[in-house]
Amino acid sequence: MTPAPDVATAPELHLAPIPTPTTRLPRLFPATEATLVMKLDSLQLAGSTKERTAHALLTGMLERQELATGGTVVESTSGNLGIALARQCAVRGLTFVAVVDERANQAACKTMLAFGATVEVVPTPADGNRLRARRERVQELLAATPGAVTTHQYGNPDNPRAHHFGTMPELVHSLGRAPSRLYVAMSTTGTLLGCQRAIAEHGWDTELVGVDAEGSVLFGGKAGERKLPGLGAGVVTELSEQATPDRVVRVSEADMVLGCRVLAQREGLLAGASTGAIVAAVGADLQRLAAGEVVAMLMHDGGAPYLPTVFDDAWVRSELPDAGRGLARASLSNPFATV
After folding, report:
1. Residue 197's domain spans which residues?
2. Would you say the pTM of this structure is higher than 0.90?
3. Cα separation of 102 and 118, whole Å?
4. Dihedral angle computed from the Cα positions of residues 178, 180, 181 and 182, in that order, rounded to the nearest 10 degrees
5. How many CB atoms lie within 10 A of CB 238?
6. Within 13 Å and on the Cβ side, how many CA atoms surround 78?
7. Domain boundary among 146, 178, 207
8. Considering the chain, what is the average pLDDT of its residues?
9. Count H helices, E strands: the chain?
């Protein structure tokens, strides 16, 4: 009989990110002859792929002694990284201050508070650039808090490293081969850059598609108003200047909502807005997909925090009228086909 592990020396499984499964999606777009799959990073303990990012950011700073045990971490976040940092800081004995804006998901803010974080809400500036305002407030808090540091998710090389050595190799291992295409949502572009580097290192023949929001300035996009957090950026991030996706697909917020609804109703997967954008991008590309291709998507986070918004008809019709008018398209075989 195998002896039970010594509890004192057993690994702290609640500290490191966990490998997540990949599932086939045969009902999502049944007309396609390509194999559609999704990596379920929503199953991370913090509820999103940002668990990988938070772990890598904090581990790197602690190992380099840039962050002291018991120290304070300040970071700008739209929600998911804040949750993951709050959780990681809780188990590491660190203090975390999340700087969010008025569009932050309220469920995410409450989750951060539950993990013991402080949440500071920055008002929307006159020019509407909430990301820039958050980053400026981070610098003010660092100057006012002795010993405080920021993980600087927008430029820290540990951000893409988490996906270079974690997310992408896990996906390939689970499939038994590299996917023909991989669709990744972008904000800091850390996930995309990490996957890009893994693809280049191993020579995998994978088309890397970056999914961005309309209104994001990444990769030459035009700035515009955005109501759904977590996808796109109001500034060109340091990491994005190193990223070279094979293609960029920009998705409207109306199609993000529709993508979430279609994924939930056809595959029973409740996902957040960025994953809905990926579903919409794949739908728009459906005619590009050949028989036998393996097309992979990353489920960045779960949909429970979006129940009061993306999945609430009244909110959608009030805040995103185009999305409200488009809800009836969910019954179409491919609601995202170009007419």
Report:
1. 16-44+160-326
2. yes
3. 15
4. -10
5. 16
6. 23
7. 146
8. 93
9. 11, 10
